[in-house]
Amino acid sequence: MIAPMEKLVVAGPRRLARELLAELQRAGVVHLDTLRLEELKAYEFSEEERQELRAWETIATDAEQSLVLLGLGAEPAKPATGDLETLRAELSPLKQKISALAAERERLEEELAFLRLYAKPVEVLADLAQGLDESRWLALLPVLIEKEALLEELQGALDEALPERYVLAHAPADGFLAATVVVLKKEVEVARAVLGKLGLAEFKLSGPYAGLTLRQAKMKVAERLKAAPSELEEVRSALMRLAREVAGKLRAIWTRARDELARLRALNELASGRFSLGLFGWVPVKAKARVEEALERLKDKVVYAFEPVDEHHEAARVPVTLENPPAIKPFEMLVTFLNTPKYGTWDPTWTLWLFFPLWFGMIVGDMGYALLFALGLRFLQGYVERGETLVVDFLGFRLSPQLLEQVVRILRPMIFWTVVFGALYGEFFGNFLEHLGIFYVPGHGEGGLLPILLPRTLSNTAGLLILVSILFGVFMVLFGLGVRAWLGYRHRHPRHFWEAVGYIGGLVGLIVLAYQSQTGAGGPLLSGLMWLGFAVLLLGAVLAKLPLMLAELPTQGGHMLSYVRIYAVGVTGAIMANLSTDLGFAIAGKLGLLGILFGLVVGLLVHGLVLTLTLIGHVLQPVRLIWVEFFTKFGFYDESGRPYRPFKSVRNDAGA
User: Fold this and answer.
1) Does the pLDDT value for residue 249 go beyond 90?
2) Are the CB atoms for 122 and 217 separated by under 8 Å?
3) How far is Cα 280 from Cα 5, in angstroms, rounded to an integer?
4) In the beta sheet, which residues pair with residue 279?
5) Cα 395–399–401 angle (5° rounding)?
6) How many C-beta atoms surround the C-beta of residue 277 within 10 A?
7) How far apart (Å, rounded) are the C-alpha atoms in residues 35 and 22?
8) DSSP letters along 585-611, please?
9) Is 170 helix (H, G, I), strand (E, B) or coil?
């Protein structure tokens, strides 16, 4: 449900602004809004406060950068104590030491990358040069060529520019062609011009290798290739030791700086006079006691009042937070991911809790796949228990333990329903248990131990499962329109009310018409109900002033039929799973004992491929039915609410 809110107004002396904000930040439940009054102007920072703001910004940035250089995240911790200067004095030497080690690490990593790329070319070039780059009379130009064709072009250009006055030598070197061009020193510029015309450049060493001859560079490269890895390992070890020693302190300083910054920036929301201030915010009704407890510490210094919200006139301003039981709570992120419901409307989270796992189980319906999902859940649960962040580098994901806990709680009912329907369908990695004689299909051989109650891949069961899927669609579409009618009546929007009522009537008439055409049933009761439904549709279209409702009725009916995908997507996956198992058993039957092992491996690999290719669809199809076919019925996307952003410590943001 959408949590009921109340307005909070606080007035007090300006000198207590920081103290007041500190108490409200500890409470962590007040959503601050900018307050502007004719009697009070916007809060103006003093020069001292501006300097303090900049100082805390610097501390927060330096602490966060230091943590990043240590390979750590800026995670909230218990805030550091002490004043601004004390924390700055503690942070400065840590930052300098970490920055120096990180710079040395970066230098060594770059040097090693250079050495590994060019060690062989330098060695080959030195062997080709034979010390001629140290000659008083000759000039030697080293070149690295990527394509052999360029070597022939170079030789031709040199023949034309310096006929019989150059020496060109070359040899392969780790993907390059290392070449040396030797000319008289007075003709070196001519040779360089030839290289330039062909898009070639003279190979020059930089950094500590600049100015060395090729022979000297070869010796130094070999020396550094031996020494640099151990030096890099020492620097990395020093950074790891330092990370263990100072991570807690850095995070504590970062947390304190972020909280101080939040309080200073929140001053912009206040209205103030020369000696007084005013503060305005929103508080969930259930959290009022926490605000009262916080303000109790400032009793006789500030005055405050709570006021009820007028949802008809203030709904667009009121921040929205959702309050649901623990089992439903994780599914809120599947709602707010798309849109925040407007205050005074309806929270559809419980529909996701009830139907998404159920339909997922109906679609997958395989006990073997449920076992794999359970193993995945246990893997994620390990991160939650250890309080670790799951990092998926190739996707760029960083999933916090708090988010993973919500994912785990969503997965549990999904796995439960997958097991339930797997048992009803008799599926364990497709028809694996049928091959073993544990399950059997009644009427198709009685050689098993347990009859399959709903063999969904057979045509005689398809009708029942399709009907169940369509009934889900009928319920969801009519329920969604019913919610729209209720909201329209509640908020005095007659157009929305009559549009929803008209569609409900029209769909009832359409359902009765379809039932009569499919079953041949008749009678005055059914005919009367059908015509009454169409009459309500016409009345709704007239009163809502939406004549296109008549043309849109088949589309609404199509949304009901869209729920057939619950059966269609599921039976497609089941057929593919059966084929995967059949393939494994076919191999096992051909090759004897070796075939059993080979067939098992092949079957599992194909099952893994099938599951990988279909899993995203198995998740998206049921949730799409709620997001699209259901949410659009009651206007979920028509209006957006303001997300509730309570003024709180950064520790509360992380669930600490």
Assistant:
1) yes
2) yes
3) 13
4) 10
5) 160
6) 22
7) 18
8) HHHHHHHHHHHHHHHHHHHHHHHHHHH
9) strand
Quote the strand ranges of 48-165, DSSP E.
Answer: 138-145
Token representation of residue 184: 């008289």
Tens of pLDDT, residues 308-331: 988 888 888 999 999 999 999 999
Identity at 90, one-letter amino acid code: E
Helix (H, G, I), strand (E, B) or coil at 204: coil
Separation of alpha carbons 127 and 122, rounded Å:
9
Q: What are the counts of helices (DSSP H) followed by strands (DSSP E) for the chain?
A: 19, 15
Task: State the amino acid at position 368 in one-letter form.
Answer: G
Spatial contact of 563 and 473, defined as CB atoms under 8 Å apart:
yes
Q: What is the pLDDT of residues 170-209, one digit of tens each?
A: 999 888 889 999 999 999 999 999 999 999 889 888 888 8
* Position 35 pLDDT exceeds 60: yes
Edge to edge, the sheet with strand 166-173 lists 138-145, 176-184, 166-173
Tokens 């090729």, located at residue: 214
Round to whole Å and give the CA distance between 423 and 48: 70
Q: Which domains does the chain have, with CATH numbers?
A: 5-84+253-319 (3.30.70.2170), 111-228 (3.30.70.2750), 346-634 (no CATH)
State the sign of the Cα–Cα–Cα–Cα dihedral 632, 634, 637, 638: positive
If you search the block for the tokens 């439904």, which residue do you land on? 533
Whole-number pLDDT of residue 656? 35
Residue for token pair 């640099």: 228
Token pair of 405 as six digits: 């806990």
CB contact burial 397-421 (16+ within 10 A = b; e otherwise): eebbbebbbbbbbbbebbbebbbbb
- The residue-averaged pLDDT of 289-296 equals 90
What type of residue is 92?
Answer: S
The whole-angstrom separation of Cα 267 and Cα 22 is 11
- Give kind and range of the element (H or E) at residue 360: helix 349-364
The tokens for 504 are: 């409900």
Pairing between strand 166-173 and 450-451?
Answer: unpaired
Measured distance CA(395)–CA(613) in Å, rounded: 17
Say how far apart CA 190 and CA 502 lie, in whole Å: 89
Structure tokens at 147: 């394509």
CB contact at 8 A, 203 and 125: yes
The answer to whether the CB of 322 falls within 8 A of the CB of 316 is no
- The β-bridge partners of 464 are none
Give phi and psi for 449, each to the nearest 5: -90, -40
Determine how β-strand 31-33 pairs with β-strand 276-284. Answer: antiparallel
